[in-house]
Design brief:
There is one protein chain. By secondary structure, the chain is an alpha/beta fold. The chain is built from 8 helices and 9 strands. The strands form 2 sheets. A 5-stranded mixed sheet has the order 3-4-5-7-6, with helices on one face. The protein is globular and about 50 Å long. The N and C termini lie far apart (about 40 Å).
């Protein structure tokens, strides 16, 4: 069984299309999106359309929930005027059916894998879409956030950072971000993002052996920047600047 795992598209349909093109022609039986699919980018309605076509299960992310409700549940404080303006614009791009589609995103998604080990898919953690797991967190902290998972392989997004963490006889991984992969190597400018789309492909053989592949797929970011500027999103240069090249 091969499962494509994506997360944090954030309204970037061009990046998602590049990723899907990279996967096309391969034997991918299942796919899952770990949330934060719509809010924040210049193509929210196009991303909804792509996810409808794919018919992959989608996990509810914190940004998805905030887009629908306007209720901030994380620890980052109240949203800025800019974030509120982008939210209002994003909602205006979505139909009633689009909003109902997003509201049906699930808290977690689970797959039965060959060999009897399940795959548990969340956004932040199975406990909360606001939970943050970063590379510098110790194993004990990660295990505490994951909670009892019945020996499952677990995956989550939220931090826009590809990660792999062995945890005894199981493991946790983060496929990174499709639309806004963070450049954590640029500590002087943490707002910058990579000019590629990230995902992971999990392969599980009939005897339970697993293989995990992380991917980074380049795409036409200059075309993305043009689409941002033409979209009507508030302060388009603010978003376009995140993809700049020095």
């Amino acid at each position: 069984m091969r499962i494509a795992v994506v997360s944090d598209i954030h309204g970037n349909a061009l990046a998602l299309d590049a990723l899907l093109a990279d996967l096309s022609g391969e034997r991918i039986e299942h796919g899952v999106c770990l949330g934060d699919a719509i809010q924040g980018g210049a193509q929210p309605a196009a991303v909804v359309a792509r996810l409808r076509e794919l018919a992959w299960p989608v996990v509810m992310g914190n940004a998805d929930a905030w887009l629908l409700t306007g209720v901030e549940t994380g620890a980052q404080g109240p949203p800025s005027a800019y974030q509120l303006a982008v939210r209002d614009w994003s909602l205006a791009q979505l139909s009633v059916d689009d909003r109902a589609f997003i509201a049906a995103f699930r808290p977690t998604v689970e797959f039965d894998l060959p060999g009897g080990t399940p795959l548990l898919c969340a956004h932040g953690s199975p406990k909360s879409f606001d939970d943050i797991i970063l590379p510098e967190m110790g194993d004990a902290g990660v295990l505490d956030l994951l909670g009892p998972t019945g020996g499952a392989i677990v995956c989550g997004g939220h931090t826009h950072t590809q990660q792999f963490r062995p945890l005894g006889d199981r493991f946790w991984f983060n496929p990174g971000s499709v639309g806004l992969p963070f450049r954590r190597d640029l500590s002087d400018d943490p707002s910058r993002v990579g000019r590629w789309a990230e995902c992971a492909v999990l392969t599980v053989e009939e005897d339970g052996r697993t293989r995990l592949e992380f991917r980074r797929i380049p795409y036409d970011v200059e075309r993305l920047i043009e689409s941002i500027r033409a979209s009507g999103i508030p302060e388009p240069e603010r978003l376009a600047e995140r993809y700049r090249v020095d």
